[in-house]
Design brief:
The protein is α/β, with parallel strands linked by helices. The protein contains 29 helices and 36 strands. Helix 9 packs across helix 26, helix 13 (471-484) runs parallel beside helix 19 (557-570) and helix 22 (634-643) packs across helix 24 (663-671). 56% of the residues are buried.
Length: 960
Amino acid sequence: MSLIHEIDYGTPASKSEKTVTLTIDGQKISVPEGTSIMRASMEAGIQVPKLCATDMVDAFGSCRLCLVEIEGRNGTPASCTTPVADGLVVHTQTSRLKDIRKGVMELYISDHPLDCLTCAANGDCELQDMAGAVGLRDVRYGYEGDNHVKARSTGGEVNARWMAKDESNPYFTYDPSKCIVCSRCVRACEEVQGTFALTIEGRGFDSRVSPGMHEQFLNSECVSCGACVQACPTATLTEKSVIEIGQPEHSKVTTCAYCGVGCSFKAEMRGEELVRMVPWKDGKANRGHSCVKGRFAYGYATHKDRILNPMIREKISDPWREVTWAEAYAHVASEFRRIQYQYGRESIGGITSSRCTNEETYLVQKLIRAGFGNNNVDTCARVCHSPTGYGLGQAFGTSAGTQDFDSVEHTDVVIVIGANPTEGHPVFGSRLKKRLRQGAKLIVIDPRKIELVSSPHVKAEYHLPLKPGTNVAVVTSLAHVIVTEGLFNEAFIRERCDWSEFEDWAEFVSDERHSPEALAAVTGVDAELVRGAARLFARGGNGAIYYGLGVTEHSQGSTTVMAIANLAMATGNIGRPGVGVNPLRGQNNVQGSCDMGSFPHELPGYRHVSDDATRAVFEKLWGVTLSNEPGLRIPNMLDAAVEGTFKGIYIQGEDILQSDPDTKHVSAGLAAMECVVVQDLFLNETANYAHVFLPGSTFLEKDGTFTNAERRINRVRRVMSPKNGYADWEVTQHLAQAMGLNWTYSHPSEIMAEIAATTPSFAGISYDYLEKMGSVQWPCNEKAPEGSPIMHVNGFVRGKGKFIRTEYVATDEKTGPRFPLLLTTGRVLSQYNVGAQTRRTGNTAWHPEDRLEIHPHDAENRGIRDGDWVRLASRAGETSLRALITEKVAPGVVYTTFHHPVTQANVITTDFSDWATNCPEYKVTAVQVSPSNGPSEWQEDYSELSKLSRRIAGKLEAAE
């Protein structure tokens, strides 16, 4: 094994289809028009010295190292800023160029520390490399006089130009003394990340990089995406892990285990110790970029809180008892058999994990169907994107997004509805902002003023700040304008959709009751804003819609998804680059968990369990008879547990007590069960009610695949041994064997082979093929051997696109005198889901607690000041947290996150859910906010329960 080295071509690739031919150092080379001479040289295998150039950002031309000579032209132009032209004859190495480059390097080194042997970048320093490349052997200028290197002069005077190292960021350091002012970090922050947090302060010799207005990195607008660290050619910006461990010696490409973007990273290692995660430029989802979570927040994998041995207890009030793996498997198998004998076959079930691999998820649903003998399997998609599966399946015939992420580079108008990409899907958010800076127009439909509404060099053309729960009304009113003003794409509809269904839908949306004016009182959105947004989307060119949980987590989540599909079809924005309907998935493999048959009514590939032919495929392979009756969804399992008919559950990698709505109901259901088996990294909140705990493994400790939000199947590669002894798929297999199933998989590739053999959309997938292709988007089969970056190109999967009436029905969750405000929930950039991973990393520096966002008007009416403890109460329950007064939320709306279990925000949310899928209505809860003195009585009781449930026999302290 060795380090994977990626070629830095110095400048971005040209997208021109026209080619030109030139000669560089005697070699003829043909490249696309617009390519820089520097990049053309690299493509010819000729490396021109450089410091300010890198192919992740545009050419800058400041370092003056990359100079070349061109026959017939005067001077020595910078190769990074000089484009190629037909017939050019270029020389990259002449006596004149050698002298210039040496002189430039002398100037750099004369104001740079000479601590190379002890420098953290030793072995990975471009300045050091370039000094060698230009043949620098001496510095004639000396090191005295004005400099940025020494805190004091030889005479002891304070050096005003010297600055101390900034170590405020938990993940990297900034050492100004080593900065060569190449501006690569500044440009990466602007062009790649789009935050504009860095600048060059001062002029001439006084120039230096500055976060914000001479702030520390931690207190600045920096989002710690790592783009600046990756771009830095010296040790100015260096990962603390590299300083502590040293340079890595080998690496493997793997896939991030956080959000649904599915970024590819090089895991760079020393032995089995992870040194750093570096975004892989060939990763087709992230194209070499990253966010703070994927880049830096991997410390949870080695955190002291990880449970590494199986544990059992008879009652949830007992301390945990560590046991062997064999004893744990035997106990679970015995208990599940007992429960089924006593209460019936349907009395147990399981929940698959959207954080585990496709292969692991497939095995869990197989265990439940083949081993438990029922279809009582569900997944966290139930509480997030199940309406996507239903709604897109009805309209288009397939339950996934239509585009790849590259598609955003071709869009002209973007609707972002119910999503906050810069916080929840930050790498895609950066790609979207880049396209917006290039001129694409943006429409935001969201109750909050998210960052995309107004941020540096990005401003939404329209922000429709709708009342929570009125998505259907707003999208239908957009359709009303498009239809009544004749802005629909008739040719597309006649060719690709059912015209009679369109006519029926058009008649429905044209009704005056669906006009923006008629619905303004319901939605709270000015009618002219709606009309302007509708006209822009219909007339603006390629129109793309991106949506998130603010669409699906409603009582009409499925209806809104179908309304969005109607809008895309009506405007002809399906089936080509730059358009489409794009759900932004929450977890790393939530798409994959759905694909693998994690719903109680569907086998892998979204085929209903009642279909005889589909069941026959699996029955023949598995050697069992499968039930043709849909099983229980998660809410049904909990209801049945309270009723006394559901008694055992196997939960892999999900924390339903913290993530699911109506916490009191979830806890009552879990408490009523006789055998709760939790498989996870940590003793999570659900484990408070568990009888068996099976230690899980991280994405760094296993092989497999994840499927991201764009249907991209990416490899996950093991880079270290599982600290618990086994990958999750092995644990599930051993459990299946204990229950009498003859499973003999020796590697996840064999599981994928079974998936491909039984699931048409995965028919062309194998580990060998993924190794060859890098990644593939399903469907991948005989019809699409290289995968399907864009869906529905020549027609819809279901045949004709289906227009569906989307009647707005107000939620049953109503505000009133007791609960006059509406609560909606979401994420922040630095934390992830229930926080089990990110709370065990340095990310807590940015978000140490959940806060309640409240508008100044609502806060003033209640006598609440910023930072005050407040009581947040609903019909379901109450909790306390501290207030954050902000105009991001509208009057009448409050907002919080659910990353910290001490808050237990879901004790507030109710049991209202989507009419089609039971997806909970997290986004609309009627609440009251009032001053408080601190945590509520319920929080204190729950905290005490958590401490008791985490006791481990023989351990001095409870596990956290």
